[in-house]
Amino acid sequence: MRAAKQDGDQPKISKYKNKITFVDDIKFDSKAESEYYLVLKEKLARGEIQDMRLQPVYVLQDKCTRNGKNLQAITYKADFEVLYLDGSLEVIDIKGEETEAFKIKAKMFMYKYPNMKLTLLKKVMKYGGWITTDEYKEKKREEKKAI
Predict the structure, then answer these.
(1) Which of 73, 87, 131, 143 has the most crowded CB, counting CB atoms within 10 A?
(2) Residue 85 contacts by C-beta under 8 Å, 6 or more apart in sequence?
(3) How many other C-beta atoms lie within 10 A of the C-beta of residue 12?
(4) How far is CA 26 from the centre of its chain?
(5) pLDDT for res 16
(6) pLDDT means over runs of 10, the chain (147 residues)
(7) d(Cα 134, Cα 10) in Å, to the nearest integer?
(8) Burial, 73: exposed, middle or buried (Cβ in 10 Å; 0-12, 13-18, 19+)?
(9) Per-residue pLDDT at 85
């Protein structure tokens, strides 16, 4: 794995302060995203999943014209789409933090694509590695209660 470089040895930083990394000549916006790509690549090699797509784009609202103005489509670009052996699809996004814009797009995605599972993952070694953001929030609530 190699990090993108700028100005000598400094790795590039994405807009959310993540370190941009490259694996298999594919650019990832964060180290965690590149690490999860390797998890999926292994699952694919072992025959545990049928296929995976990187950065699939979903239209949440079509482009339109309103009051003489052309409005762009609203889209959501996920990190991964996984096709399982049973034919089901799961959309996976690796999140450090959920932005307000993402929360709105997630709701729009769930409305427009009710049969597709959207999973938000976070890598937290303290809790054993990859967990959903909902599991993370629950564990943090439990920790606060214990104090």
Answers:
(1) 131
(2) 47, 48, 49, 50
(3) 15
(4) 15
(5) 52
(6) 38 62 92 95 97 97 94 96 96 90 95 95 92 91 85
(7) 34
(8) exposed
(9) 97
Q: How many CB atoms lie within 10 A of CB 13?
A: 13
Two structure tokens written together for 80: 């991964």
* Number of residues written out for the chain: 147
Nearest partner of 33 among 48, 107, 24, judged by Cα? 24
Task: Return the CA Rg of the chain.
Answer: 18
| Total domains, the chain | 1
What is the rounded distance in angstroms from the CA atom of residue 101 to the CA atom of residue 107?
10
Whole-angstrom CA distances from 33 to 7, 18, 70, 79 are 24, 10, 34, 7
pTM: 0.81
Report whether 88 contacts 82 (CB < 8 A).
Answer: no
Q: Are 14 and 32 in contact (CB under 8 A)?
A: no
Q: Which domain holds residue 134?
A: 2-146
The tens digit of pLDDT for each residue in 31-59 reads 999 999 999 999 999 999 999 999 999 99
93, two tokens: 């996004």
